[in-house]
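To the team - 4'-deoxy-4'-aminopyridoxal-5'-phosphate complex, inputs and output below.
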Amino acid sequence: MSLLDRHRAVMPAWMPVYYGDDALEIVSGSGRRVTDANGRSYLDFFGGVLTTMIGYDIAEISDAVRAQVATGVAHTSTLYLIRRQVELAEKIARVSGIPDARVFFTNSGSEANESALLFATNARRSNQILAIKSGYHGRTFATMAVTGHRSWSSSSLSPLVVHWLAAPDRLRGRMAGMSDGDLLDAAVDDLREVLATVTAGDVAGLIAEPIQGVGGFVSGPDGLLGAYRKVLAEHGILLIADEVQTGWGRTGDHFWGHQAHGVVPDLITFAKGIGNGFALGGVVGRAEIMNAVPATSFSTFGGNPVSAAAGNAVLDYVLSHDLQENARRVGALLIEGLRNLPYGILADVRGRGLMIGLEFVRSGTTEPDPAVTTRVFDLCRRNGLLVGKGGLYGNVLRMGPPLTLTEPEAREGLAILTDAIATADA
Ligand code: PMP
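Output:
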């Protein structure tokens, strides 16, 4: 029995696995490359959904983790002091831009957002949350409720009352002749309209991704979160930035995605790449909000010594190698190369730094084309390049390679993408 058949026989039917009957088992990795169980090597432009922030088999990170494992203690519980966890919290508080910040560690992005929602709803004594359509925030009860993407969320049993904002989409805006300024004005009008239908002072917070990840790397114009914030502040509504995909220099221009919006959120959540594959997530935020939980709140594994050792090594590596600048430079090269491609199926090349999305349509129309997207996706894999897929209509290829991606690797990936898009367009 193949591993795929065994997987299907024992896992729930809804678990997504890429490449259908040709599912991939990655058995080793080095730098920006992985090898599958058949010995085939791939250049990895997805990093397992942006989880491999630095790359595979990076000595500084493997050594830090090995040193912790060598103590004989992988973890006991967070009831004891964990030196690495405190060190990491100090660093994250420093880079947060939030004065007198507090940090709480979790094992995942879902738990990070669940915690942020817990803190915000407690601080405001309200279960009302604003969220943005087509956003993704996780798979727990509260995070599914604020995930505006029905294929990922069944929120009928939501513990929250959610008020939805339209997702500002620059591609569709451009196609409709709207400037970024028009989109900003429309988004603020939308927020004001939604708040007019409720008792605005009773709303706890707005949760938003600076660039929507699962939603297809869609973003509003720069400054959007700042513009929302001005309205939110009139009612004391908190701003939660979900930086699970956009943090740690990924977007090149800034350390955090929200910095492009000229705003400091009340709470910031992070996960995915911050452990370079080790399970780590968390929330950093203003002390009075983080401290507002009236009872004790505890995570057995959140910020465990192994994950915290990885987290310290990742953050040190990002900062000491200026990976944000590398993401900006190598990302710009990729984006420029992709924007020069003359194919009708490729409607949009968008992104920032090393977070790049390609949107595919039926040539000459605005109609999403998930079939052609899958064709490009499969061709890339056949030619040795791993990318991701997503978007509300399944018509976006997503790329989030390790931030150490080199220029020659970017050119190699670009050549494979070009070939795949040309073949699918023919
Ligand atoms: N927020 C965002 C923006 C995400 O992309 C994800 C994961 N795709 C999550 C939260 C949930 O993270 P996890 O899968 O680690 O629970």
